[in-house]
Design a protein that fits this description.
Elements (H helix, E strand, L loop, with lengths): L6 E6 L10 E2 L2 E2 L2 H7 L3 E3 L2 E2 L5 H10 L3 H4 L17 H7 L3 E6 L9 H4 L4 E3 L1 H10 L14 E8 L2 E8 L3 E3 L8 H14 L6 E6 L7 E3 L28 H4 L1 H4 L6 H32 L6 E6 L18 H4 E2 L1 E4 L6 E3 L3 E2 L3 H8 L14 H6 L8 E5 L9 E6 L2 E5 L6 E4 L17 H17 L14
Helix pairs in contact: 7-10
């Protein structure tokens, strides 16, 4: 039997970093993940490479920044995808049994599935077949359109109407075991219980708590909306917010939503978080029962978060902490659990997984391995995290951001910049870009962002220095 370490990588969709340790309405949001966290290295300041599904996941899987790998939008056809080796292929080539369970949002060319002979591939198409077999033909009470809102967004400078999931809530009319994340959890459990001679790399990509906010009982009633404590900036834009932020989809999707409606949205979102957490708990139990727990490394994180009304925004697609900061846990048998407060990135995951597997890290990746920090307790050097947003289905609204130490800088070539002191203003309520005392910080972070982007093929104009706050 191989001596290589097996790997279990779990990712949720739209799960906020502050869900870990959260209690709302008297209910623990993530009991299984809290137990995992107590045994893990907890990276408390982990950031994604993009607040959007396909760019975030492709950057993570390839170790390349979105403008370097080509996937800067939700490019579902992979029209801009490049020929980059994803972590799955590297592990397969090293002799791993590689399994993919859940949503498929990674775009490379050739495609992920074409590159790897997966030991198991179970995606949304697999769940659709399961739904048909079990007559789950009407999952959205009142019809799917009830959970969508139409709005105008920027597509290459042209206004285009698009529909996105709104903050409306509903009850999935079938048993919880039929919800896709419960189904995928069972598939992962079965995979872990299979006997095998080779090391495995199981990638489980859960859907929850992604909207629409339609969920089964008992989760739909688990968090009482009347007892939800909302953050103080729900429904409140930042002071000094650029005008472009109100034109973006995240702000448009929050228009007209009352505080009571936000409490209902939070209750449903947290119900979905708990549903995903129960699936994660089942998978972790299966790992313990499989006999592999003593040699497997467990990774957990999300692709991005959700504003849930903060900054008067909904969903992701902006650079505020609720969208770009993610939970990140790594458990390795025998390690000392602890919190790491240095800034880390999605771009660090591929090199970390490679080193965890005992494989060489290729030149040219945009992240660094965190394995020495995880396994040997090494101190991380302070490094910035860089984040990219370029529109959802097409090139449109442009945001670029860098997080360094206590500061976050956001650049928009068509509007004023943003600068937030995350230490003294964690809710990002005050844009400090116009503060003369912070000008040195702003100039330094802009220069770093410009150098980073230009070195990775970013096509935007970083020289709009005449635009000031």
């Amino acid at each position: 039997m191989s001596t290589r370490r097996s790997l279990l990588f779990i990712m949720t969709d739209h799960q906020r970093h502050d869900s870990l340790g959260m209690t709302q309405a008297g209910v623990e949001a993530v009991p299984a993940l809290n137990r995992l966290a107590a045994e893990s290295v907890r990276f408390t300041r982990a950031y994604n490479a993009a607040p959007l599904c396909a760019p975030a996941r492709t950057a993570l899987a390839t170790g390349l920044y979105p403008t370097a790998n080509g996937i800067v939008t939700n490019d579902w056809r992979g029209e801009r995808a490049g020929d980059h080796t994803p972590i799955h292929e590297a592990l397969y080539n090293a002799g791993y049994d590689v399994a993919h369970i859940g949503v498929d949002h990674i775009r490379v060319r050739p495609s992920l599935r074409e590159r790897v002979r997966f030991a198991l591939w179970n995606d949304n198409g697999s769940y659709k077949r399961y739904a048909q077999e079990n007559a789950l033909d009407n999952p959205y009470p009142g019809g799917r359109e009830r959970y969508k809102s139409h709005s105008i967004e920027n597509h290459g400078g042209k206004p285009v109407e698009r529909a996105y999931s709104n903050a409306q809530t509903g009850v999935f009319p079938y048993e919880a075991r039929h919800f896709k994340d419960a189904y995928w959890g069972r598939q992962a459990e079965a995979f872990l219980r299979e006997p095998r001679e080779r090391p495995f790399a199981l990638f489980l990509y859960l859907w929850a708590p992604h909207p629409p906010l339609v969920l089964p009982e008992p989760y739909a009633s688990m968090f009482n909306p009347r007892e939800i404590q909302l953050p103080e900036n729900v429904g409140v834009p930042a002071i000094g917010e650029p005008l472009n932020r109100r034109r973006g989809i995240a702000a448009r999707m929050a228009e007209g939503v009352s505080l009571d409606a936000w409490r209902r949205a939070w209750a449903a979102h947290l119900g979905l978080v708990r549903l995903a957490d129960d699936a994660v708990g089942g998978v972790l139990n299966a790992l313990d029962e499989s006999g592999h727990a003593d040699e497997a490394a467990v990774f957990f994180m999300s692709d991005h978060g959700d504003h849930l009304g903060q900054h008067a925004m909904y969903q992701k697609m902006e650079m505020y902490e609720q969208a770009v900061r993610v939970p990140f846990l790594v458990k390795v048998p025998g390690q000392t659990p602890r919190a790491v407060e240095e800034v880390v990135s999605h771009l660090d995951i591929m090199p970390t997984l490679l080193e965890a597997a005992g494989l060489p890290i290729p030149n040219g990746l945009d992240g660094r391995s965190l394995w020495g920090c995880v396994q040997r307790g090494e101190t991380l050097d302070a490094q910035p995290a860089y984040i990219c947003y370029s529109g959802n289905p097409a090139i449109g609204d442009i945001r670029r951001a860098v997080v360094s130490g206590r500061w976050k800088y956001v650049y928009d070539p068509d509007d004023i910049p943003e600068l937030y002191d995350l230490q003294n203003d964690p809710l990002e309520t005050q844009n400090r870009a116009g503060d003369p005392s912070a000008r040195g910080v702003l100039d330094d972070l802009h220069a770093r962002l410009k150098e980073w982007g230009e070195a990775r093929g970013d096509w935007i104009d970083f020289n709009q220095t005449h635009i000031t706050a």
